[in-house]
Amino acid sequence: MSHYRRHSLEPSIDSITNRFRDSLNFQRDDDDVINKPDFRELDYPLKPRVSSSTAATPAASGSSSSSSGSASGKPSVTSQLAKRSHSGELTESGSATPGSGAKNRNPKPGHRRSASAGTPLIYSGLAFSPVKNRGGASGATSPSPGVVPSGNICPSGKIPKTGMASRASVKPETLFTGNGNYGHGNIVRGGGGKSKPETRDPEEVKKAGNDMYRKGNFSEALSLYDKAISMSPENPAYRSNRAAALAASGRLKEAVKECLEAVRLDPSYARAHQRLASLYLRLGEAENARRQLCFSGQCPDQTELQRVQTLEKHLRLCSEARKIGDWKKVVTEIDAAIANGADSSPQLVACKAEALLRLHQIKDSDLCLSTIQRLDHHHHHHHHTQAKLFGMLCDAYVLCVQAQVDMALGRFENALVKAERAMKIDHSSNNPEVVSVLNNVTNVAKARTRGNELFTSGRYSEASVAYGEGLKFDAFNSVLYCNRAACWFKLGVWDQSVDDCNQALRIQPDYTKALLRRAASYGKLGRWDDAVRDYEVLRKELPGDSEVAESLQRALLNKSEEHKYLGYNNEVEEVSSLDKFKTATSLPGISVFYFKSSSNRQSEAISPFINTLCLRYPLVHFFMVDVDESLALAKAESIKKVPTFKIYKEGEKAKDMVCPSHKLLEDNVKHFLL
Questions:
Q1: Is residue 11 within 8 Å of 39, Cβ to Cβ?
Q2: Residue 556 and residue 579 in one domain
């Protein structure tokens, strides 16, 4: 009787020692690392080791039927586990260990143990299983390496080349079931007969899925595993293989569901428990990970246990820091937990976002949350013990944080929807934090809506009261502060408008609307220096905004009190000596020197415009030099024609102009000023 080996794709969790994942650092524009599959952890299959010596050699004699759920080369967890074996289970070596005859239990559907269990349609290594030909006789077994017998099926539908190990073909071969001129058992590519080709053996379908998995075609692998499951729904190994493909596709919660189904079908299935522990670790669920590692009181893998203990430590320190409001410590511990392997944990990402929100880094907090996939709590299987963080179910906690960030950014309707969802998920425990978030979001949203209605109807005083009511429930809501500042502005209470804008900007420093409102309020108060400063910041943030540019110019024009404080004059100052000229050119800021002659008609024509510019641009120093009275200065500056203008900026000459037009002169003054 020929011997064959079944190749399967489940590497041991023992092989997982390194895990990639960048911790979430939102000084960058993150790259979606949260859902990226980790091939090492999720048991990316190794190609089966096939040789002429091992292909035809059964397992070493004297050993009992080994559980393919344990790592290759390691003893079984218990004798009970040793008796339980699953054909097609993902092993570290990439090949399944054949059974030991009488010691194997009767297999479940799809659990064919040896050639004696039936007539397998499988080629493995260089040994061929018997396949009946048209006459009913079995084909020859173990032919020479140079001969490929007709009518035999290779693993996953592959035909080996002469003298070589099998290689992947473009399209799997299948048994032709039509009534064309082919004998039963012959291989055809893609049909060609009147009936659609079929694969009757779930093991063959599973092996085709394994091939797709090796090639990284996880979608096709899932489709094939689904087909194998439909043919043999009680086979836990098929569920486990499907979990591996889901995890490699980044669908970790669905992978958890498949593993839970595998252990439901076979509670002693060690491989599924190990995979569950690995998945729970990535999801940041330390308690569930520990439960799977230590199932039925078995001794867990020490490497994985160490990682679970490290995750538990970071979560404990994070919880302690959160209780005392040490939000920087919270960020540090969450980053460490993610680096330890919890790289696909929505609740840990949400915890970091909450800390950033409390540190008034609202946009970073929002960016952090944007990496979390849309939550769907229906993913949870009824056997799954839902994890908690800070006493809340994880999904409820994530929604609570999202609601608070939405509220801080003025997305009140979204905040209310998420807070209500959180309460629905966590209704059984009635957690006080979830209740508090829902209560706050509800009242703040109601206050904002009422305030907006009153403001729109021109009832500014009542609107300011309504916004104030909302601030009682959320004292750090920058939107409510900014809206109330608008009420004070309309009522002419400029100083209170400035105060509320300051509060909004302390909470959200890059809040453009609050900065605009404060600049306008400064202008109403005649605090032109403060107004100019705000408008200059806005001009950098909104370079194409003409309204901001005009407001800045108006603020500059009205800065008369600042002129006196800085020693600027409201009129053109005359310079007659070389020493005074040198002193004037060294002044900070912008200085314009106007060289003229009383007898020159162009000079006399432009002089009134110079006086206008002096009033229009109070931050610019304007000086006049009469070349007829200051011949030495004119000669030193090489003045050959009047009117001539020289512009200095921060003590350095920036521009020379001879007989410029009014527009050209003013454009250059504005250019160097702004």
A1: no
A2: no
Quickly tell me which residue has 């039936």 as its tokens: 118
Is the pTM higher than 0.85? no
Q: Residue 622: helix, strand or coil by DSSP?
A: strand
Query: Tokens 């059984």, residue?
Result: 428
Are 122 and 272 within 8 A, CB to CB?
no
Are the CB atoms for 556 and 619 separated by under 8 Å? yes
pLDDT for the residue 569: 52
C-alpha 423: how far from chain center: 25
Burial per residue of 326-352, b for 16 or more beta-carbon CB atoms within 10 angstroms, e otherwise? bbebbbbbbbbbbbbbbbbbbbbbbbb
At 85, the amino acid letter reads: S
Shared domain for 558 and 613, answered yes or no, is no
In this structure, what token pair is assigned to residue 36? 């990226």
CATH number, domain with residue 249: 1.25.40.10
Q: Cα(103)–Cα(66) distance, rounded to whole angstroms?
A: 10
Q: Would you state the pLDDT for residue 589? A: 80
pLDDT band, residue 385 (cuts 50/70/90): low
Whether residue 176 has pLDDT greater than 90: no
pLDDT in tens, 67-105: 333 333 344 333 343 334 454 454 433 433 333 333 333
Confirm if 111 and 87 have CB atoms less than 8 A apart. yes
Number of independent structural domains in the chain: 3
Give yes or no for a cis peptide into 643 (omega within 30° of 0): yes
Domain that holds residue 252: 202-300
Distance between CA 321 and CA 316 in Å, rounded?
A: 9
Same domain, 610 and 561: no
| Helix extents (H) in 129-217 | 202-214
Q: Which of 514, 534, 566 is the C-terminal boundary of a domain?
A: 566
Q: Are residues 295 and 253 in the same domain?
A: yes
**Is 632 found in the same domain as 594?**
yes
| 584 within domain boundaries | yes
Predicted pLDDT at 148: 41
Same domain, 624 and 662: yes
Q: b/e per residue, 546-561, with b = 16+ CB within 10 A?
A: eebbebbbebbeebee
CATH number of domain containing 633: 3.40.30.10
In a domain, 545, yes or no: yes
Q: Over the chain, what is the mean pLDDT?
A: 74
Residues 207 and 287 both lie in one domain: yes
Query: To which residue do tokens 């596709």 refer?
Result: 249
Please report, for residues 142, 599, 658, 674, the alpha-carbon distance to residue 593 in angstroms, rounded to integers and kept in the order given. Answer: 104, 18, 12, 18
Query: Looking at residue 198, what is its pLDDT?
Result: 62
Domain boundary among 265, 300, 335: 300
Of 211-215, 613-617, 634-638, the least confident: 613-617
What's the length of the chain? 674
- The pLDDT tens digits of the residues spanning 560-598 come to 545 544 445 567 888 888 888 988 888 888 899 999 998
CA pair distance 297, 244, nearest whole angstrom: 25
Q: Looking at the domain assignment, is residue 665 inside a domain?
A: yes
In a domain, 444, yes or no: no
pLDDT (0 to 100) of residue 303: 85
Listed in sequence order, the residues at least 6 apart from 303 whose beta carbon sits closer than 8 Å to its beta carbon are: 14, 16, 17
